Amino acid sequence: MGAEKAERKAGQADEGRRRRPWLRRLLWLPVLLAGFSVLQVTWLRFFDPPFSTVMVFRQLEAWGQGDFSFRIRHEWRDLDQIARSVPISMVAAEDQRFPEHNGFDLQAIEKARKHNERGGRLRGASTISQQTAKNVFLWQGRSWVRKGLEVWYTLLIEALWPKQRIIEMYVNVAEFGDGIYGVQAAAQAYWGKDAARLSPAESARLAAVLPAPRRYSAANPGPYVQRRANWIQRQARQLGGAGYLDETD
Fold it and tell me: pLDDT digit string (tens) for 44-68?
């Protein structure tokens, strides 16, 4: 009886020793993933991505639906190759406190919370930094896992990228139509011109479709897009025009 008990204990001890390396590896996994994400964000401070994860998922979605002719349209342009009316239009439309906050606009979050408590159409409060984090590194969706990763990547890009890099990345990866990503591809698709030649009105129309770029058209704007574009232009002027973003680090 005693011998059997000793054998069982020895077997349990051996099993525990075999498990420990795996447990240690599992404990190190979050550290390794965090380190990898830091390297990702650091790399993209200096190098332009040829595509984003959202673009990859959109292409896979099209293939999954049997549409093998679908192709992503995207062409990178540095910020100094883009009309100055573009970034300020995006900020006026999406995140007017972009130069001031550290990735999260607490005032907008509180306003959205109060609005949503009253019912009606849900209002979000994502900043340009958050949207950039989602578009470059993550995927579309509303799961808590994705939201948690969005917060993490937002903190990283705010810590490791200057604001000019964030807005440059944003205007190059934002979706402006089905399969049309970045302001250069949008300018070519809708007006047959380079992003450097976009007018303030055209820039505002691109910003106006951002809530639902597959539903609204910047090239043939309906009443909603036109009203919103006019509002964006007024807001951009009130913020001080393109100079509003010149002092951002």
Answer: 999 999 999 999 999 999 999 999 9
Based on the structure, what is the number of domains in the chain?
2
Flag the least confident range among 85-99, 122-136, 154-168, 213-227: 122-136
Task: Assess whether 28 and 128 both reside in one domain.
Answer: no
The residue segments making up the domain with residue 21 are 1-47
The structure tokens listed for 27 are 């404990």
241 and 174 within one domain: yes
For 184-228, the pLDDT digits (tens) are: 999 999 999 999 999 999 999 999 999 899 999 999 999 999 999
100 and 33 belong to one structural domain: no
Q: Is 47 left (phi over 0), alpha (psi -120 to 50) or beta?
A: beta
| In a shared domain, residues 40 and 137 | no
Query: Are residues 195 and 230 both part of a single domain?
Result: yes
